[in-house]
Fold:
Amino acid sequence: MMKKSPFKFPFNEKTRVTWVLLALLVGMVLVFSWTSESFLSRRNFLNIMRQTAETGMIVITVAFLVLSRDIDISMGSALGFCCIVLGLMLKSGVDMYQAGFLTILTGAVMGAFSGFLVAGLKLQGMVASAGLLILLRGLCYVLTKGYPVSGFSDEFLALGRLRFWNVLPLSFTALIVIVVIAHIIMEKTNIGLQITVLGANRTTAKFSGIGVDRIKFLLFTANGMMIGFASFFLLSRMASAEATTGQGYDLDILASCLLGGLSLSGSKGNILSVFLGLMNIGIMRNGFNQLAIPAIYQDIVLGVVIALNAANWVRARRE
Amino acid sequence: MKRKMMGWIFVSMFFCIVGSAVRSEGGETYFLCPKTLGPVYWTLAERGAKAAGEELGVEVIFNGPSEANSSKQINMIEDMLSKGIQGLGISPNDAQAIKPLIADAIDEGVSVVTFDSDAPESKRAYYIGPASDKQNGKDMADYIAKKIGYKGEIAFMCGGLAAENQVATMNSAREELSKYPDIQVVATLPSNNDMQKSYENATTLIKTYPDLKGILGFTGGQPPAAAEVIEQAIAAGELKKGQIVVTGVGFPSNCRKYIKNGTLELIFSWESEKLGYTSVYVLNKLRNKQPVEDGFTLPKIGKLNVEGTSIWTGMTLVTAENVDSFDF
Amino acid sequence: MNAQIHQLKARFLRQEYIVTLFTIMVVFVFSVLPGSNFYSLPNFRIILSQAAINGICVIGLTLCLIMGGIDFSMGAVLAVCACFSGILVNRGVPVFAVLAASVLTGMLCGAANGFLIAYLRIAPIIATLASMYVLRGLCAIATGGVWISDFPETFKWPGQSTYGGIPMHFVLWLVLAFAVQFTLNNFNIGRKFYAAGGNPESARLFGIDYAAYRLSAYAASGALIGLSGTIYASMVGTVSADTTGLNTSGDLLAAALIGGVHINGGKGNVFGAGIGVLLMRIIRNGLIISKISEHWADAVTGAIIVLALVLSSLEKFSQREQGG
Structure:
């Protein structure tokens, strides 16, 4: 489970997924740059990075949840909810950074509530988040009464377009930092070990004295906080939030996790592979958009790809 | 794992082939982005746009998100902008969210227009629509007011509250109706473009307001849903024929039955094909630095009304007499 | 004494009863609100009529849930079947044939889902999310985005006929619900469903072909959706690939959860889910009729789901106390 010493080529069962995804990524970049002259441009990469950054952050925390054998499907509504809360605060004059902090807090409360349902009341993540999905979406409507929330300060909007050395957007930089930290947590810290054990076998984890409930609660809360954080960037880029904001992100987020080798019945991937899965999907969407492939086909392809990836081709036991 | 890779390679090869067919020949490329893909309304707009493209010798790409979602629409436009286009036409899902993007596009030298739904505070050069939302709202309000004898309760049914064209039209209608002291607008029900919701909204409406005299629909899905509900209620004996007047935005293809039955006497319609067609032509004019003057004519359409930065392609009033002559 | 109390608790804290109680309370609240037409026969008829479509579909979802699976693609399958029905009817195909064709189509879609889940062993969430996108996309392409409407008069009866004021499809829903639940409770096949539940291991030990049962659950669910798809087309009069069944999956899942169907399988019954459907419909209807902004509908529904979930976990705790 621990990474081999950096001088040995880390190609083994655990990291195989990562290498495959890397190869796919390179392959796609090649394909798209051949079919579309402008693919390999700084501008286009900027787009890809900006578009994947917000979902990427959420993907990481969801990945943690899946690694611990749980799931949260309410990300879309939660994202919309946080964007709306943030937007309303900004409109009523709250200072940008304070509002951001409060949104993260809101996300934390949201996540903590899920965590309470799962860890405290022993509900399943799926169930709890299904309920939250509807509740949060409903709150979105209540808060906005159907109208979009917009009209923010230029300062706030500029954040979404901030980039370092004119090539690395702020949001993507944040994502990279998060990925690195997440990877280190999973691979090198005690908690990471505990999560892995939890993901492998819950009973073993319990008997090993791991605070299963505590970890789950923590993970859900962290997920909520990350959603609040991501909504800050999303709102800045979109300049507007409405009751339906966030719809449709669930598929991409789950797809990234899946592609990254995670699964609800034992994961073969890690944070890095999830990140690569995310990038693969982001590049695919970008490439498809540039090829003017109608969005309906894009979704179909994504659906088929997900199914292919998730299919357990090994039919060892017929159950 | 091998099969996964094979699957991916297969998929990417497929798109290589598709992709090479889409390479532009070096002429101009315009990108038109509707609110969403799917409804035949947009398919017809695409038809008009592509026809114009052929007449002018420019490449027209027509693509939109699969859901009426502004972030997906923005992603798509961003991607096309970095691909390199010269003209951009948008029917924005969210008029506010699209503003920074339009500004960026213009900074890069892309000509930008909006069609079907406007982003009035943005820097787009022109808005191509059937008629001004203000005028539409006023006309619809006047029509229904007259039909119910200038007094009674009216309900609004719309698709969603974020789309500029609906909000502007509703506000204008509301303002016009406020001139009649005996008319009250008792409810505004959005349906999120879900047909079943429209149907349910209409059903509950006539139960909640037994004195309802009129229903005004602001997107194509509302009048037929309301008409269906009313026809069923009349058949069940709960309503009298002609008790409630329904009108609003509609299209012959889905209102035909109700128009022929008389439940809908008149609907306010327009041809989305003209919108697509005109947008491409206007973009072309902008690219060639040609002026856009009031009354300018286009090959398939004829004269166009220009009011400030808005270009009107004209409304079509559909009644029982002409309902069969349309193919949209 | 303690044991008796525990027994009573276990019996009556059952989610289905709680939810029924809830529903009665909600009906009461809406009825006494001033100026509302809620408590009236025509209104109840509307509620029953609108609930019936979701009700029939939720029977199918219950079957899938009992087998430990979930289904997000129900809305898409509904759209496919409704559009297909509409197209056939407009071509002059007799209504009975249309019904049969729609049921068959739904069954095929369901079986496809079932195959992905049972035999390729793709997790249900993923398989049905994927098939949702695929089906809806295919439907949009096949219909060209056109709104299918203008159905002939002969097509009115599936969705619009009444027996003495009670909508026919509501009666159909009741009949189907009873039939299915009766089978589940009293026939061997039904008991096997419960026994297999979400647990493939125990199924094997019982000699049950887990995969086959799962597939049939999804196929049956698909067939039911096909049925309600035709009724839907008949009732609403207009269907299209992108406006039909948009919220269905979420609503159905919520209803089933409220109604006490366990997401891990093995527990829950069709009536609970049915009450869930009714409750949601009543909330929405009540809000509009009482002229409260109907934006609260989703929020209230969500809150009720969460509440129901909390209560159901209490049920679990009380069981544990009993040592069961």
Observations:
- The domain at 133-269 of chain B is CATH 3.40.50.2300 (Rossmann fold).
- The mean pLDDT of chain B is 84.
